[in-house]
Amino acid sequence: MHPVTIIGAGLGGLTLARVLHLNGMPAVVYEAEASPTARAQGGMLDIHDYNGQLALDADGRPEALRADLRRMLLDALPAGTVRWGCKVSGARALIGGGHEVAFADGSSVTARVLVGADGAWSRIRPLVSKAIPEYVGTSFVETYLFDADSRHPAAAKAVGGGSMFAPAGDRALTAHRERGDTLHAYISLIGDAAHLLAPNGEGANWALYDGAELGKSLAAHPGRLESGLDAYEQDMFARMSRADAETAKHLEETFGDTIPDSLLALMPEHQQGH
Ligand SMILES: Cc1cc2nc3c(=O)[nH]c(=O)nc-3n(C[C@H](O)[C@H](O)[C@H](O)COP(=O)(O)OP(=O)(O)OC[C@H]3O[C@@H](n4cnc5c(N)ncnc54)[C@H](O)[C@@H]3O)c2cc1C
């Protein structure tokens, strides 16, 4: 059986590889970073019950450090599944079927089933779409306060045990406490490569969900890969159109002209009080 070729070892690509592995389907993941520890992975993720938790089959795990989650997914794969230091420079369709994936070091591989899980600036997306990321008008500046309780007690007190939103005009301060022959070829996209959303705390959750759904769909259509990809994509397009519309609404509610009232209306305590 040809292995499924996945580009990108983010949460989406690793979840797909894991679900395929559980279903006895081989996969290879090519990742640009040199090793699993090449860079810090970012902070705490809320794992939602309608996407991320379903993908992980993990009830009652509302928060997880992104690095812990990635490590857990890596540890659950057979050794050698992820090929580190393999930066894709481009991909092209081959006459007669299949796709050639080219790497920055000049090497290449041929893929029968190719999945772009390589994030916002996907090198695989141009094979199926002309879409490129667009600036949505909101910029985030990110910083970390380490040892906040002892070194930054006022800020730690203001944030409390969860999240803080402090909107003011067109700005806002937000904080979160952490802890071949005639080969037919197939391409699909998952995660940010498929549907880059403006930041709304959902992208990693949907990447996990996509990875799990594509893996299950491929496993559910043995010998009929195209049907497996098609079923996943139909569902993904419908659900992510809804998520896109919700993202625009969410941005307006949290950073738009109607704050703070629209932001307060999202808080359960406030809803109960009114
Ligand atoms: C500051 C910030 C905070 C966020 N907070 C949240 C949150 O709280 N909750 C939430 O749900 N989402 C959050 N998101 C969104 C979330 O990070 C993304 O939606 C999610 O990581 C997408 O997962 P992915 O697997 O599709 O892609 P990625 O996580 O981007 O993974 C892509 C992988 O592909 C690799 N890659 C890229 N290019 C190549 C190449 N050319 N060749 C080989 N490999 C390549 C990358 O190195 C990376 O490992 C946040 C995003 C940011 C920037």
What's the layout of helices and strands?
Layout: E1 4-7, H1 11-22, E2 27-30, E3 44-46, H2 52-56, E4 63-65, H3 66-75, E5 82-83, E6 88-93, E7 99-103, E8 108-111, E9 113-116, H4 148-151, H5 153-159, E10 163-168, E11 171-176, E12 186-189, H6 203-220, H7 225-255, H8 261-264, H9 268-273
Parallel strand pairs: 1-2, 1-9, 2-5, 9-12
Antiparallel strand pairs: 3-4, 6-7, 7-8, 10-11
Helix pairs in contact: 1-3, 1-6, 6-7
Tags for this model:
single chain, 274 residues, alpha/beta, FAD/NAD(P)-binding domain, 5-stranded parallel β-sheet, 3-stranded antiparallel β-sheet, 9 helices, globular, binds flavin-adenine dinucleotide
Task: Describe the structure in your own words.
The chain is an alpha/beta fold and 274 residues long. The protein has one domain (4-136, 180-255): 3-Layer(bba) Sandwich (FAD/NAD(P)-binding domain). It is built from nine helices and twelve strands. The chain has helices spanning 11-22, 52-56, 66-75, 148-151, 153-159, 203-220, 225-255, 261-264, 268-273; strands spanning 4-7, 27-30, 44-46, 63-65, 82-83, 88-93, 99-103, 108-111, 113-116, 163-168, 171-176, 186-189. The chain has a five-stranded parallel sheet, with helices on one face. β6 (88-93) and β7 form a beta hairpin. α1 packs parallel to α3 and α1 runs parallel beside α6 (203-220). The model has no long low-confidence stretch (mean pLDDT 88). It binds flavin-adenine dinucleotide (FAD). Flavin-adenine dinucleotide (FAD) is lined by residues 7-13, 30-33, 42, 45-46, 87-88, 117-119, 123, 142, 191-193, 199, 201-205, 207.
